[in-house]
């Protein structure tokens, strides 16, 4: 199995609300607005939004509700940019989970939650290389 | 906020078991085996494994247990390769959630669950372009 991820699908309760939130972050969806799944090209992979009940069935899991042990992160180039993205996300209808602050691992980060409660860490990690195209390299 | 994802962290109950599973898939971890977080470079982003309780606290969420509405997918180049990856994953200690089969969207996919119950869809989507470097492009 090659060492890569092609698609991350977030289960949502209200597709219009979820699409609107990510669009308010400045993201552009692909495909028609009437589709029952929304795709965003995100670098070399795709982020999808889909009905959470259908996603659970398709994923062969039982949906217990709430958080299930997956957190996404969006790395930026400075602590100030962490605060800017958190402000954008809360203005777009997200919830601030943790304000931007220095972290135990030597960086600076905060958390916002999307309208379905999916957490996103917004982080500046001085030890990782963030390329011009947004890709991240360890070390 | 730029349209990209830097890091996906999976919360795990037993880090050695989880690291061993992904290594048995053929993935190579970065950093020392003694670290309390395991990183895998996965194309332009990073997949991390970390203690689920610590991840919940760090993510400003309550952990309700079980699945929480996030499914990852790994796209491959043919239906036969879907079956091969599912066989690799079950041989490595994963659980088959759904055997490879034709899907309602015109592709072929199956599901395996890692030792912590995180579902991975393994898919062949004839409508998406899979580049030689493994990156995926819509359309």
Report on the structure:
Two copies of one chain form a homodimer. The first copy, chain A, has helices at 15-24, 52-58, 79-91, and strands spanning 7-12, 37-42, 45-51, 70-75, 95-102, 108-113, 119-124, 129-130, 136-137. Chain A is of the alpha/beta class. Chain A has two domains: 1-62, Roll (2,3-Dihydroxybiphenyl 1,2-Dioxygenase, domain 1), CATH 3.10.180; 70-139, 2,3-Dihydroxybiphenyl 1,2-Dioxygenase, domain 1, CATH 3.10.180. Chain A has a four-stranded mixed sheet with strand order 4-7-6-5. In chain A, strands 1-3-2 form a three-stranded mixed sheet. In chain A, strands 8-9 form a two-stranded antiparallel ribbon. Chain A is globular and about 40 Å long. Chains A and B meet through β1, β2, β3, α2 and β4 of A and β1, β2, β3, α2 and β4 of B. β4 (70-75) of chain A pairs antiparallel with β1 (7-12) of chain B. Chains A, B: It holds the Pfam family Glyoxalase. Chains A, B: Residues 4-125 form the VOC domain. Chains A, B: It comes from Microlunatus panaciterrae.
Provide a brief overview of the structure.
Chains A, B: InterPro entries: Glyas_Bleomycin-R_OHBP_Dase, Glyas_Fos-R_dOase_dom, VOC_core. Chain A is α/β, with parallel strands linked by helices.
Sheet having the most strands of chain A: 4 strands, mixed
Question: Strand order within the widest sheet of chain A?
Answer: 4-7-6-5
The pLDDT mean of chain A sits at 95
Task: Catalogue the unreliable spans of chain A.
Answer: none
Strand content of chain A: 35-45%
Shape of chain A: globular
| Element pattern of chain A in H and E | EHEEHEHEEEEE
Q: What's the CATH C level of the largest domain in chain A?
A: Alpha Beta
Total DSSP E strands of chain A? 9
Class by SSE composition of chain A: alpha/beta
**CATH topology call of the largest domain in chain A:** 2,3-Dihydroxybiphenyl 1,2-Dioxygenase, domain 1
Percent of residues of chain A in helical segments? Answer: 10-25%
Compute the number of structural domains of chain A.
2
